[in-house]
Amino acid sequence: MKQHIRLGLVCLARETYDFAAAAEIYKGFIADVAKVENVSWETIPGLVISIEEAQAAAKKLGGADLDGLVIVSGTFHLGHLVLELRKRCQAPILLWAPDELPYNGGKLRLNSVCGVNLDASNLYKAGVDNSRAIVGNKLDEDWVDAIRAISVLKNSHVGIAGFRAHGFFNLSVDDPTLYKETGVILDHYELSDVWGGTADPSAVAEREAQIRKTFDVSGLSALQVSKVAELSAKLNAFYEKNKLDALAIRCWPEFARDYGVSHCAAMSILQSEGRILACEGDLEGALSMLLHKAIGGETPYLFDFSQVNFEQNFALFWHCGVAPCNLWDGCSVRSLDTYFAGGKGVTADFVLKSGELSIARLDTARGKRRLFLQRATAVPMDKDLKGTYLKAVFDRPVKEVLDTIIRTGLAHHASMVYGDHVRPLEIAAGLLGWEIIK
């Protein structure tokens, strides 16, 4: 389900144009936008024509805790109106001009595009950069999804357990700057908070049955299966107790060394149930996954860009064994394995399903917040490796993609989801002033 948001809707007009026709168009817009998934609307029902009406509308909309504001240019109108609305409502703005009506007696009936031009110019010259404009009779739902992405950051409870993985300096974040630029307040926990305490025996039993049904566990001891089940129950309880929306976890070396198994298999299970979990303490990786989920991407997977083949033009998206188990290709053996950490690294092993992919990485470097966006396609492959992985083909040479990643110093993890989910995040990055890397 996409992130729930609150949007405002208002229509501006002037009586020297066909404002009666604009009012009818606006009624249709109100009915149409009400059908958009998981959006609550704060609507100004009539046309806003005078400055006093704009001030009254601004007062109402400004007190509605909006995530975004849609301003319809019903006809050309006074330049004051949008600025009065902006005074009270600081949310991102969509300026919307309906298509021009057939001419009547040699006159432009709406002149709505010129109204959008006026508003965009006034906002730009006033230093307002989080506005966007469209022309047509349909709401831009990619903009709506972009607002979901912005909203999910400022409204989510995000945590990190432990710290980033040892030596992964490129995954570090500065908490105050993160808050300033995204609204995220990051809560820190100890790893012992996750695995400590007691687990509900019935929850552990349910998890063990789920594990044995989902995976081939013939390579594990009974104790290892039990430890994974216990950790799954404890991690899930920790997530729920702290009302988390996303959690980054420092997974090595402490988990295998101090708890007895790694958390990979437990993460595979819980992520398949909608939990946002990032390994190796990758906080911005977790936020990348959260962005994907907000706009309708199902069960994001945080992968390493692990191999390239320039001759066959593909990349291997791999990680040690944490992919959501519901992304299995249905052909390979879906198993648990202990191939690393001295036999304690219990991981999921399977090939991910084929299909259209969208890739995103929220990343910070040299004082800039950036968003890496790509499209790719997962193609079938044999199960030749341990861990969870897929073979990806891009819509351009893989060497160009790798060169972009290396040249811009992007972190070595990225979030992927199935389907086309690129444009909403591109719009969101533009509204937030982030650099877009493609």
Q: What descriptors fit this protein?
A:
438 residues, alpha/beta, Rossmann fold, L-fucose Isomerase, Chain A, domain 2, 6-stranded antiparallel β-barrel, 5-stranded parallel β-sheet, 36% helix, elongated
CATH homologous superfamily designation of the largest domain = L-fucose Isomerase, Chain A, domain 2
Span of the ends, CA to CA: 27 Å
The CATH architecture of the largest domain can be given as 3-Layer(aba) Sandwich
Average pLDDT, rounded to a whole number, is 96
Describe the structure.
With 438 residues, the chain is of the alpha/beta class. It folds into 2 domains: 5-139, Rossmann fold (3-Layer(aba) Sandwich), CATH 3.40.50.10940; 153-437, L-fucose Isomerase, Chain A, domain 2, CATH 3.40.275.10. It contains 14 helices and 18 strands. The chain has helices at 19-33, 51-62, 80-88, 112-125, 141-155, 175-182, 191-195, 201-214, 222-241, 254-259, 264-271, 283-294, 398-407, 423-432; strands at residues 5-12, 39-48, 68-73, 93-97, 131-135, 158-161, 186-189, 246-249, 277-278, 301-309, 314-319, 335-337, 347-351, 355-365, 368-379, 388-394, 413-418, 435-437. The strands form 3 sheets. A 6-stranded antiparallel β-barrel has the order 10-11-16-15-14-17. Helix 5 crosses helix 12 (283-294) and helix 5 crosses helix 14 (423-432). It starts with a strand and ends with a strand. The model has no long low-confidence stretch (mean pLDDT 96).
